Structures are given as C-alpha cells and as structure tokens.
Amino acid sequence: MNVWRNLHQFAPAPNQSTSAGRPVPMRHSRPIEVDGVFLGAAVEHELGVRFIAVDARVIDMDQSIWPTVDYAYRSARQLFKSGRAAQPF
C-alpha cells in the first residue's frame, strides 16, 4: 500500500497562478436550473458555452457545446421535461 506524504510540495504556490508570466483568466459559468432542480452549468467556451451536467436526466448533454446559454438552457429544459433518462450501460 502506498502512503503519500508531503503532497503539499506538488501544489502551486499562491503566486504561481500564472501561465508564462500572464494571469490565467477564470472561466465564467451560469447555473442551469429548471423548476428548482439544478441540472448543470453552462461554462464559457471558445465556441460558445459548454454544458456540464450534474443531473442524471440530462447526462446525455454532458460536455456538449452550444452557441449561447439560452440554447443550452432550452435544450436541457426540453430533455428534463421529456422525462427521458440516460440508459445505464
């Protein structure tokens, strides 16, 4: 059994949050919720927004890319309302 000690040595120092001397920008995201149920998040992406699913009813959409947050929201809402869930493997 491996016991890992001193893992803090691999963590970046607080002032090392840069890439080649430039600050790394934080990605913006918006929660996607329907009828009070948190389905996932729409995260800013070079091509629009990427949907990150957290509810099993919309897992088929996980990692999909949409042109806008509104498209991602409407698609997640439609899938959620349809009641189709991903089939287990």
Which spans have pLDDT < 50 for at least 5 consecutive residues? none
Number of domains: 1
Please list the strands of the largest sheet in the order they lie side by side: 3-4-5-6
Q: What is the helix content?
A: 10-25%
In terms of DSSP E residues, the strand content is 25-35%
| N-to-C order of helices and strands | EEEEEEH
Shape: elongated
**Continuous helix count:** 1
Distance between the first and last residues' Cα: 32 Å
Protein structure class: alpha+beta
CA-based gyration radius = 18 Å
Kindly state the mean pLDDT as a whole number?
Answer: 81
Largest sheet: 4 strands, antiparallel
Number of strands: 6
Describe what is shown at a glance:
The chain has 89 residues and is an alpha+beta fold. It has one helix at residues 69-82; strands spanning 18-19, 22-23, 29-34, 37-45, 48-53, 64-66.
